[in-house]
Amino acid sequence: MNDSSNNPVVVLQTRGPRIETRHRAAIAIADGRGLIASCGDVDAPSFLRSGAKFFQAIPCLTSGAAERFHLGDRALALACGSHNAEPEHVAIARRMLAAAGLSENDLACGPHPPMHPATAARLSAEHLRPTRIHNNCSGKHAGMMLSAVARGESPRGYTEPEHPIQREIRRILGHFAGVEDRAIEHAIDGCGVPTFILPLKHSARAFARFGRPDQEIEPELAAAALRLGDAIARRPNMVAGEDRLCSAIARVTGGRILAKVGADGFYGVAIRDQGQGLALHVDDGATAISERLMVAILRARGHLHDEEFAALEPWCSRERRNCAGDLVGSIEFDLAGIQA
Predict the structure, then answer these.
(1) For the stretch 5-36, what's the b/e string if a residue is b when 16 or more beta carbons lie within 10 angstroms of its beta carbon?
(2) Residue 1 has pLDDT above 70, yes or no
(3) 104 partner at 20 to 30 Å CA-CA among 128, 221, 300, 303?
(4) What is the rounded radius of gyration, in angstroms, for the C-alpha atoms of the chain?
(5) Residue 338: enclosing H or E segment and its boundaries?
(6) Whole domain around residue 76: which residue ranges?
(7) In the chain, what is the straight-line distance between the N-terminal and C-terminal CA atoms, in Å?
C-alpha cells in the first residue's frame, strides 16, 4: 500500500501561528490514454473502497435489471451511492428489493446509524433502530442482487469474490482501468463485498473513461456508464444526500463533474466534459482532508467556475473556525506540479 515516506505533504492545517497537522497524499490525473499529471507515488496500490461504486453499478444496466425491474434515475443513482439513509434513500432501496421479490433481510450489509447526523437524530427520536436498509451501501447491494437475478443467477452468496456478479464487476473495473482483471487484488470492504486495490494512476484512468468512454470501452459498458452518469446528474441527492460533497458537486456542476468518496482517504472524480479522471488518497485516511483536497485540485486546474467554487464553500473554505465562529487557523494546500 502507499508508503507515506514517498508522498509529499499537500495539506497543512494551522492553529494560531503554528502548524498543527500535516497531511501527505498521492494524486493522479489521467485521461483515457493514461496519466497526465501526478504527485506522490501513484504506482503504489490503494483501496478504492466505495470509490468503486460507479463501476459496481454498471451490471444493473448490462444485465437487463434496469429494464426488467424498472429502475429509474433515482434507483440507478442510489446503486452508485453511499447514501445518508434519508427517507427517500430508504424507500428507493426497499422498492428495488421488492421488485425482485427480495427484502432487506436478503441484504448482506450490516446495520449502522445513518451517516447524516440529522437523519440519525430523527430515527432515534422515533425510537427506531437502524437496520440493514440504513447502511449507506444498501443501494449498491440491492443493485448487485437485482443484477444477479436478471442474469439468471442466484443472489445467494452475492458478496463472495467468486460469485459471478463479483467476477463481472472485477472484469468491468479492469476494462475501464486498462488492466487485466486477474491482476486486481481485493479485500473485504466494510459492507461485506470485495473492495478493489489499484494503483492511483489506473483508478484515475477508470474514472476518466467512466465519464467519457473512449473507443476501447465495450459499447454496452460505455452506454451503461453514460446512463449512470446521467442518472446521478439528474438525481444528485441519491448518490449521497444532504450536506454531502458528492451530491453537492454533481448538483452545482449540473453533472459535468461526478465525484465519489471512498472510506479512509480515497476520492475519485470523473470530469465528464474534459474526459479526465482524478484519483487521490490521503495517507492518514482523513475524509475531510480528502474532500477539501479534491475541491482544491479541481479549482487549481480550472474545472470549477467561480460560482461553482463559491457554492462548495463548506468544503473549500481555507479558514478554520471554532464553535463560536472565531477564526483560529487556516488550511493551506501545496499543489505544485499538478496545477493547470
Answers:
(1) eebbebbbbeeeeeeeeebbbbbbbbbbeebb
(2) no
(3) 221
(4) 19
(5) none
(6) 4-333
(7) 28
**Strand 276-282 with 319-321, pairing:** unpaired
Is the residue at 339 inside a domain?
A: no
Digit-coded pLDDT (tens) for 18-57 = 999 999 999 999 999 999 999 999 999 999 999 999 999 9
Nearest to 278 by CA among 26, 85, 6, 77: 26
The grid coordinates of residue 114 equal 445513518
From the CB of residue 227, how many other CB atoms can be counted at a distance below 10 Å?
Answer: 16
* Helix (H) or strand (E) segment spanning residue 314: helix 313-316
Per the structure, the count of domains in the chain is 1
| CATH classification at residue 262 | 3.40.710
What are 69-113's pLDDT values in tens digits? 999 999 999 999 999 999 999 999 999 999 999 999 999 999 999
Buried b (16+ CB within 10 A) or exposed e, 158-185: bbeeebbbbebbbebbbbbbbbebeebe
In a domain, 250, yes or no: yes
Q: Give the pLDDT of residue 338.
A: 79
Element (H, E) at 296: helix 287-300
According to the model, what pLDDT value does residue 3 have? 53
The verdict on residue 340 lying in a domain is no
**Residue 124 is assigned to a structural domain of this protein:** yes
Residue type, 214: D
Q: What is the pLDDT of residue 230?
A: 98
Q: What would the pLDDT profile of 265-274 be if each residue is shown by its tens digit? A: 999 999 999 9
Measured between alpha carbons, how far is 253 from 328 in angstroms, rounded to an integer? 31
Reported as a single tens digit per residue, the pLDDT across 246-266 is 999 999 999 999 999 999 999
Write the DSSP assignment of 215-271 as a string of letters: TTS-HHHHHHHHHHHHHHHH-GGGGS-TT-HHHHHHHHTTTSEEEEEETTTEEEEEE
Q: Structure pTM? A: 0.96
CA distance 118 to 106: 27
